[in-house]
Specification:
CATH superfamily of the largest domain: P-loop containing nucleotide triphosphate hydrolases
Helix content: 40-55%
Number of helices: 19
CATH class of the largest domain: Alpha Beta
Structural class: alpha/beta
Number of domains: 3
Largest sheet: 7 strands, antiparallel
Number of strands: 16
CATH architecture of the largest domain: 3-Layer(aba) Sandwich
Distance between the termini: 69 Å
Strand content: 15-25%
Shape: globular
CATH topology of the largest domain: Rossmann fold
Strand order of the largest sheet: 1-5-6-7-2-3-4
């Protein structure tokens, strides 16, 4: 009844831009038909927005939906202004900035919404390790301020997950302002600023859900929590520290897709993949993955483990922390309080009839020696090491106290890698070079015409990059190189000679190939590799 009355008003009050000829039916007037469809579309669109909006209480939604079917655009403006006022009060920003953010929030889900039933914008649920909701832990009582803080906390976590962030940093940059920064594709960007009172409330809500002491603001603490969004469960690892202007939080979003990674997805060349697969299918030996923090070592390690038939082989991993669940594998998490270290766990694993052992990180002499001995005695061992290159990995193991004979006998393959950002396909464009630059590129046999540069668009949040890929340097420990390691003779020089002989490229060459193919930029290669 209401909808029919609305359509009658639109039809009879619309402007007459053309005079129909005698006997022509008014219902077929194109102008009136377009106005009718446009108004109906806007009303239904805003009705759906209201249905799935987190800013309207459940008991009031029915009233707002009915009202929107009559005057959707007017209701929309009222709700946007209401949200802007709320944001302005909570964050201390100007009304104009809050109004812009409010409009952006309302339309952010337009691409993912449809008028089909059940296609609502995904809402996030934050839980502690036992499965209790954040509202049950921190939001007891009917306190509007606490509910507002929890809405803001959920919004921050949800946005970080949707934007593919790997870290969230909440920093007190001054006594009057906190910043919220996301690390996306390895780069930090500021996403929001909060006044101290609201920021401290957000920090307390996250500490409460992570089973941390809210009253302790100076001593460093560690915690963890979970989130459920749509059909995906996301794990978070959190650390706090007292700093000059308050308390800082660092939240790591663990890579939940690591368990499905394959070697073809990492970014390695086909030749490198072929070399790695040949070593993986050997019954014993150590495969070492090297690189600095944030270089994708764990993802590559999981991709290698996914090449193994875990139904017929007993796979045991030791991780700190467990980043993703591997089916048909036994995963052990390091816990210093329970005296579960890499070395202790390795000793117990060797009594569990393992075929494949994965060591999350080699940190000390004991772990390195046990892992290499396991590789000698019929086990395939995967491990990571924090170092810059393949030659540095050899020197680092020797420096840890591993004997050259033990290292030569156990080591089969060394892979060092970095992650570089990929250009956004939506806004990348051909790079422009000066005459001198073109001449230098030509001397290096580089085709400057195929090189792209970054642009800026909403898809990549104005960064020009979207996603990352790996560049790697792969070295096989050949019998000749094994003999050099055992004799401890000029190992670094021998390693470089082995690389050249077997055709494995260094990281800069791999990076240039990615740039020439239009996948990344020369400036990104320089940023990552120097």
């Amino acid at each position: 009844m209401i909808v029919s009355e609305m359509l009658w008003i639109v039809y009879h009050t619309g402007p007459v831009l053309s005079v129909p000829s005698p006997g022509e039916d008014l219902l077929v007037s194109p102008v009136r038909l377009m106005m009718l469809l446009g108004w109906a579309y806007m009303c239904f669109f805003f009705a759906q927005k209201i249905q799935f909006s987190p800013y309207i209480s459940t008991r009031h939604k029915t009233l707002f939906i009915v009202a929107s079917l009559i005057g959707g655009p007017f209701i929309f403006m009222g709700l946007v202004v209401k949200r802007a006022l709320k944001l302005s009060i909570e964050t201390g920003t100007s009304f104009a900035d809050s109004l812009s953010q409010s409009v952006s929030e309302w339309f952010s889900g337009l691409a993912t919404l449809s008028f089909l039933p059940g296609r609502a914008k995904t809402k996030i649920v934050i839980m502690d390790s036992s499965g209790r909701n954040i509202h049950d832990i921190y939001g007891q009582g009917n306190n509007k301020q606490k509910r507002s803080v929890l809405d803001l906390t959920e919004s921050i976590i949800s946005t970080a997950v949707q934007d593919r962030a790997s870290d969230i940093l909440i920093d007190p940059c001054s006594k009057s302002e906190y910043t919220i920064r996301f690390r996306v594709d390895g780069t930090l960007t500021t996403r929001q600023t909060l006044n101290p009172e609201i920021a401290r409330a957000v920090v307390n809500s996250l500490k409460a859900i992570s089973n941390m002491d809210i009253a302790e603001r100076r001593r460093p603490q560690d915690g963890a929590f979970l989130a459920h969004t749509g059909a995906m469960n996301v794990s978070f690892r959190m650390a706090s520290a007292g700093v000059i202007n308050g308390e800082k939080l660092s939240i790591r979003i663990l890579n939940q897709n690591a368990s499905t990674h394959r070697l073809d997805d990492v970014g390695l060349t086909q030749k490198q993949i072929q070399i790695i697969r040949q070593i993986i299918h050997k019954p014993a030996g150590m495969i070492l993955v090297c690189g600095p923090t944030g270089s994708g070592k764990t993802s590559t390690l999981y991709a290698m483990l996914n090449e193994i038939d875990r139904f017929t082989r007993n796979v045991v991993t030791i991780e700190d922390p467990i980043e993703a669940v591997l089916s048909n594998a036994s995963q052990i998490e390091v816990n210093a309080k329970a005296d579960i270290t890499f070395a202790n766990a390795l000793r117990s694993i060797l009594r569990q009839d393992p075929d494949v052992i994965c060591v999350g990180e080699i940190r000390d002499e004991e772990t390195a020696k046990i892992a290499l001995r396991a590789a000698q005695t019929g086990h395939l061992v995967f491990a990571t090491l924090h170092c810059d290159s393949n030659s540095d990995a050899i020197l680092r193991l020797l420096d840890l106290g591993v004997s050259s004979v033990l290292l030569a006998a156990g080591l089969q393959l060394v892979v060092s890698q970095r992650l570089i950002r990929c250009l956004c396909d939506n806004c990348k464009e051909p790079a422009k070079f000066t005459t001198t630059q073109i001449k230098n590129l030509t001397l290096k046999n580089i085709d400057h015409k195929s090189i792209q540069t970054s642009g800026a668009c909403e898809t990549c949040h104005q960064t020009g990059y979207y996603g990352r890929t790996a560049i790697a340097d792969v070295t096989v420990v050949t019998p000749e190189f094994r003999e050099s390691i055992a004799k401890n003779k000029n190992i670094v020089h021998e390693l470089k000679k082995t690389d050249a002989k077997f055709g494995t490229s260094n990281l800069k060459k791999q990076g240039l190939k990615k740039a020439v193919s239009g996948l990344t930029t020369l400036s990104e290669i320089k940023r990552v590799l120097g």
